[in-house]
């Protein structure tokens, strides 16, 4: 063993200094500079403006269709909800997406209740006519 404290099996012959830039096939060049910021599409960051929708109005009209006004507000609610869903599907992560889906479901429930009510009243009217009352 030498006096410097380096074992015999370590040789300094032919040792080279590694290059500053490592180049691997299929990967970006790695340099000593700070990494650049990468923007991800669809996550809504600074400067990304998402269009507004009528999802809240559609939900209110759908609830009114169930509670009081039936088809008079349920059909416009369904139309507005479908338009809002079209807009929100173009922008992943849009905050109104769930609201628009809920408005669509509530509007369909209102329309279904209206149809059920018409069938029941139609059956009652038919039964009344057939009984001769």
What does this entry show, briefly?
The chain is built from 3 helices and no strands.
Strand content: under 5%
With helices defined by DSSP (H or I, 4 residues minimum), what is the helix count? 3
Give the distance, in angstroms, between the N- and C-terminal Cα atoms: 121 Å
Helix-strand topology string: HHH
> How many β-strand runs?
0
Key features of this structure:
133 residues, mainly alpha, rod-shaped, 0% strand
Task: Describe the protein.
Helix 1 (55-69) runs antiparallel to helix 2 (71-90) and helix 2 (71-90) packs antiparallel against helix 3. The chain is mostly helical. The longest helix has 35 residues, at 97-131. It has a domain at 55-131. The chain contains three helices and no strands.
SSE topology:
Blueprint: H1 55-69, H2 71-90, H3 97-131
Helix pairs in contact: 1-2, 1-3, 2-3
């Amino acid at each position: 063993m030498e006096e410097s404290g380096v074992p015999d099996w370590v040789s300094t012959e032919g040792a080279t200094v590694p290059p500053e830039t490592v180049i691997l096939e299929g990967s970006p060049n790695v340099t000593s500079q700070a990494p650049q910021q990468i923007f991800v599409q669809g996550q809504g960051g600074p400067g990304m403006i998402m269009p507004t929708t009528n999802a809240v109005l559609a939900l209110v009209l759908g609830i009114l269709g169930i509670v009081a006004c039936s088809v008079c507000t349920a059909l416009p609610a369904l139309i507005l909800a479908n338009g809002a869903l079209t807009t929100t599907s173009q922008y992943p992560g849009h905050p109104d997406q769930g609201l628009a889906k809920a408005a669509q479901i509530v509007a369909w429930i209102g329309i279904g209740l209206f149809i059920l009510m018409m069938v029941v009243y139609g059956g009652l009217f038919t039964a009344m006519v057939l009984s001769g009352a």
